[in-house]
Structures are given as C-alpha cells and as structure tokens.
C-alpha cells in the first residue's frame, strides 16, 4: 500500500483515491473494514483530519461493547486516543473531536477533570452545539454535578441552530426533566413553550433553522 502511494504522486489521483475509500467506508457495515477504508483514505490525503476522526468514532463505539479493563479494551482505547489526538492536532478548532475524546476517556474511566476539560474545550470552539451540551450534561449528572449540568444546558439557549427538530426536542425534554428534579420549576414553562414551538414547526418540515429563545 505504501509503495503504491509513492507511485501515485498526482494530487488529483490521490484526492480521487481518498474520496473513493471514504465512500467505501460509509457504505460498509463491517467496522473492521470501515477502519481499513478510513486508513486508506487518510493514506492518500493525510493532511485531512476527517479520516482520523471517523476512525476514532468507530473505535469509541466498539469500546462500549467491551469489558472495561480488559486487555482488548485498553488496546483499542489507546488506538482511539491516538486517532483522535491526531485529528485534533491537524484541526484544533473542530469541536466534535474534543467531544469524541471526552467519550473515549469516559470508557477508560479517566478522572472527571480530564473529561470536563475536553468538553469545555469543545464548547469554547462551538458554544451553541446542543448535541455536545447534551452529552456533557449526562456526564455531569452521572458524576453528581447536577448544578453544573443545568448551567451547561442553558448555555445552548440564544444561539442559532440548524437541523432536525426531533433532536432539539429531545434536548429540551432532557433539560425539562433535570429542571424538574434539580432546578427551579418556574423555568419549566419557558422550556415547555419551546418544545411546543418546535413540535409545531416539525408538523411543517422535518428540519430547519431555529433558536432556543429565553
């Protein structure tokens, strides 16, 4: 494979091969094969962090099905960290990569401070990404940091979002659940109104642009 790359020094050819292997990875239902295709895609266009990030994401999902502490788990976690760190080094402003790293660290039972640091780094780059805030809040609740979890969820309000309404409603319902359990119930009406507003929009279209308005 390496020798083939040396003979394929045309930027157009390398770009075409990289795209081809990326498409093959997205079609494949076999995780091992996916990883191999991502590796090949990155081989022909190594400056792009996309392939390292996708490989790390595939590996992080596999980690969830492995016994924590097993040699296989430790080996795969180490590889996942290597991949996501490579992606971060190439493109430090991609917030999703920090969130992926936070997820990998959780499967390794890393200390809470390390996980929080990655989520905070992600939100520094993309403050209104409610998907990252949703995962971050779940981690904070699991580590009994409920007050901070509520603050993290409110941080998604006021920013412009674009995507399927279903995900936004899921986020708001989780926020409402936490507010009911741990927060000020006076704010519940505001969240309920936003849920209803998005539900009405969903009747007209599956996705769109919206803002969580206080």
Q: How would you portray this structure in words?
A:
By secondary structure, this protein is mainly α. It has a domain of 66 residues. Helix content is 72%, strand content 5%. It has a two-stranded antiparallel sheet with strand order 1-2. Helix 2 packs antiparallel against helix 3, helix 4 packs antiparallel against helix 5 and helix 7 packs antiparallel against helix 8. The radius of gyration is 20 Å and the shape is globular.
Task: Please tally the helical runs, counting DSSP H or I stretches of 4 or more residues.
Answer: 11
- Give the neighbour order of strands across the main sheet: 1-2
Q: Biggest sheet, open or closed, and with what strands and sense?
A: 2 strands, antiparallel
Which percent range describes the beta-strand content? under 5%
Order of helices and strands: HHHHHHHHHEHHE
Q: What fraction, in percent, of the residue positions are helical?
A: over 70%
- Arithmetic mean of pLDDT: 82
N/C terminus separation: 55 Å
Query: Can you tell me the residue ranges where pLDDT is under 50 for at least 5 consecutive residues?
Result: 1-15
Alpha-beta content class: mainly alpha
Global Rg: 20 Å
Label the overall shape.
Answer: globular
In total, the number of strands is 2
